[in-house]
Amino acid sequence: MERKTKYALPWIIYLGSLMGFGLAKFILRGIGVEFRMWVQALLWALAFLFPALLIGYYLTRIKYKVVAVVLTVIYAVLAVIVFLAGFVYFLLKSPEEHDIGSGMLCVEEPSGGDSSDYTYWDKISFFGRKQFEWDEERDIKLLEEKYNMQFEKRSGAYMTEKYPMAAVHILRYPTVSGSEVADDFIENIETYYFKETYEAEGFRTEWSENHLIMKSEAELKQVSKEAAKMISDAIEDPIFEKFPGTLQVQIEIKGSKSVCSLNFSGKKKSANEERAGDYYTDAENVEETLEETYNALLYSLEENDRMDQITQDTEEENKNYANRVEEAYDYLYENELSKQFTTSEKTYNAKGNFYAILGGDTAAYANKNDIPYEVTVVYDRVSDDGESLLFVMYKKYNEKSDTAAGYSVNAEEGKIEEYDVPWF
C-alpha cells in the first residue's frame, strides 16, 4: 500500500496543480484578466517537464539494469526532441508581449505573412493583464506624458492651451518597448510657423499645404534663402529642442518629383552628430542639400531616358531583324519552295522564333505506309559571314521530326543555296 501511495502521490500533486491552474485561469478570465505570457510559458513548461522527469525516474528503477539504461537513454533523447520542438513552436506561434510603459502592454500576434494584429492590456501585478480599448482618457494620458502639457478633446481632435493653433490627431499607438505614440502635433506646429513666415515675408516660391515646391534650377537660390528663413523663425520655439522639426521641399523636373527633407532642432550639436540642429538656418547649407537632391533626380531622369532609348533602339533592331527574316523567307518560298508546296503560313512560336507551315501529306515511315506528316520551315540562324540567313525544312511524323533540307538565303544578292542537314 505504501509503495502504491509513493508512486501515486506525485501524480496526484501534478494533476491537482493542473486543475488549480485551470480553475484560476477560468476565474480570472471571468473578470477579464489573463496570465502574462511568461507565466503561461512557465506553466506549460512545468506541465511537460514534471511528468517527463517522473517517467524518466521510473525507467531508471527497472529491475534489469541494461534494459533500464537503454530505455532511459532512448526516452531522454525523445523527450528532449519533443521539448525543443514545442519550445520552438511556442516561440514562433505564440504572441509577443511588449511593455510600452505607463503600466500598459502591447501584445503582437502574427496574423499571416509579415502582418500582425495588436491588442493592448493593462498590467495586473506581475502575473496578469487585462485588455482595454483606446479611448479619450488614454489618448490624453499618452499625449501629456509625451509633451508634458495638458490636452483636452475638441471637435474630434486634441488641443492644448499652449498651442491653440495646432490640433493633434493620434496616428499610431506604440507597439514595441521604448516607442511612443505617433501623432501630428509637431508637424502642425511647424507648418503654422512656416506658413506665418511665408505670408509675412511675401515669399515667391510656391507653397502647398506643408512644403515648398521648386520647379527649376533657376529657383535654387531663392528657395534656399526662403527655406532657411522659415526654419530660422520656427526653431525659436523651445519645443524643437526636444522634438525635431522638418521642412520639406518638393523638387520637380519634367513631371518627376523628389522630396528633400530639411531636418532641424534647437539642440546643441553633440559629439556624435555630424550637423548642428540649426544647420539649415544657413541658406548656403540649404542650397547645397537641395542641389544634391536636384542633381540626383536629374541623373535618375537621364538614366531613365537612356534606358528608354536603349529599349526603343532594341525594339527597332528586333523589328528590322524580324523583317529581314520574313523577307528572306518570302524570297526562298517564291523562288524555291513554291515549286513543291502551294501554301505557306508564316507564324512565330511562344519564344518569338519564326517558322512557316507548308502543308502536309502521307508517306511511308518507320516501316509503315500512309503515315501523315507536316512540313515546316524554321529559321535557324545567321550564317558565319553574316551575309545570309539559314532556314531548315522539317518533316514531322507523329510528333517526330526528320530534317529534309537546309537553305542559305541572301535575298539582297538574290542567292539561294541548298545544303545538307543530317537526318535524325
Overall helicity: 40-55%
The pLDDT mean sits at 84
Question: How many alpha or pi helices?
Answer: 8
Q: Uncertain regions: pLDDT < 50 for 5+ in a row? A: none
Distance between the termini: 90 Å
Strand order, biggest sheet?
A: 14-15-16-17-18-19
Class per helix and strand makeup: alpha+beta
Mind describing the biggest β-sheet?
6 strands, antiparallel
Give a written overview of the molecule:
- It is a single chain.
- This protein has 424 residues and is an alpha+beta fold.
- The protein contains eight helices and 19 strands.
- A six-stranded antiparallel sheet has the order 14-15-16-17-18-19. It has a five-stranded antiparallel sheet with strand order 1-5-4-3-2.
- A hairpin with a 4-residue loop joins strand 18 and strand 19 (415-419).
- The longest helix is centred in the C-terminal third of the chain and has 53 residues, at 283-335.
- The chain is flat and about 100 Å long.
- The termini are far apart.
Short recap of the structure:
The protein has 8 helices and 19 strands. By secondary structure, it is α+β, with helices and mostly antiparallel strands. The chain has a 6-stranded antiparallel beta sheet with strand order 14-15-16-17-18-19. A 5-stranded antiparallel beta sheet has the order 1-5-4-3-2. It has a 4-stranded mixed beta sheet with strand order 10-11-12-13.
Give a topology summary.
Layout: H1 2-30, E1 33-35, H2 37-60, H3 65-93, E2 96-101, E3 104-112, E4 115-124, E5 128-132, H4 136-147, E6 152-154, E7 157-159, E8 170-172, E9 182-183, H5 185-201, E10 206-208, E11 211-214, H6 220-234, H7 239-242, E12 245-253, E13 256-264, H8 283-335, E14 345-348, E15 354-365, E16 368-382, E17 389-397, E18 400-410, E19 415-419
